[in-house]
Amino acid sequence: MLLDELNHRVKNTLASVQSIALQTGRTAETAEEFESAFLARINALARVHDLLTKVAWEGASLADIVAQTLAPYDGRALPAGRAGFSGPDVRLGPNAAVTLAMAFHELATNAAKYGALSNDSGRIEIGWRIERGSEGELLEITWSEAGGPPIRPPKRRGFGTQFLQRALAREFDGRVNLRFTAPGLNCRMRLPLSAKLRLAA
User: Fold this and answer.
1) 163-173 pLDDT tens trace
2) Which residues contact 79 (CB under 8 A, 6 or more apart)?
3) Which of 13, 29, 115, 179 allows an S-S link to 186, with CB 3.0 to 4.6 Å?
4) How far apart are CA 82 and CA 41, in angstroms?
5) What are the phi and psi torsion angles at 126 (to 5°)?
6) Would 28 be classed as within a structural domain?
């Protein structure tokens, strides 16, 4: 059973690495850009795997995933008061944890290059809540930036935009809305809080 589970995990991980390599290669304009983006994404994947390994791959809390995403910027780009996150306790299954960690990585990388983390005054707020309706529970996550340099909608859809809008929709039947506003980027994710999101293995 352990060997079967290990084989399953390794195959999933290799498939993720292959997908990251292919998609990064399609959007990178130079070999240097490909190397930098690819290694950063692999490191993000490794960090979330470390987080899951500590809990025997039984899932992870959304708060831990967000904190881990911001950790590389802590003390350098995030002095006190420049980033905050809050929301109810939500535990995600391993697949959901990996997917959301990669989504947050793309948002943080974009913020460091062009948005709220690219200057000395920007701020990021990440919040989430659970909506309960007739069709079940819905997890809404909001990433809001303010105080960064003026931004414009990108001329082409890069890896990050495609990942956010396609991967979350495909894997979890979710919807992602990206708005490039004067205060900064705003990303709202609305994901059905189903067993697939909470307990996916």
Assistant:
1) 888 888 888 88
2) none
3) 179
4) 23
5) -120, 125
6) no
Residues 114, 149 contacting (CB under 8 angstroms): yes
Q: Could you report the per-residue pLDDT of 95-119, keeping only the tens digit for each?
A: 899 999 999 999 999 998 889 988 8
Are the C-beta atoms of 150 and 108 separated by less than 8 Å?
no
Domain extent at residue 124: 58-199
Q: For residue 61, give the nearest of 99, 103, 89, 86 by alpha carbon.
A: 89
Number of domains in the chain: 1
Asked whether residue 112 is assigned to any structural domain, the reply reads: yes
Q: What is the pTM of this model?
A: 0.85
Q: Please enumerate in sequence order all residues whose Cβ is within 8 A of that of 130, keeping only pairs 6 or more positions apart, or say none.
A: 88, 90, 137, 138, 139, 140, 193
CATH number at residue 142: 3.30.565.10
DSSP states of 20-80: HHHHHHHH-SSHHHHHHHHHHHHHHHHHHHHHHHHTTTS-EEHHHHHHHHHGGGBTTTB-T
Least confident of 1-5, 20-24, 41-45, 49-53: 1-5
pLDDT value at position 163?
83
CA distances to 108, 115, 148 from 118, in Å: 10, 6, 7
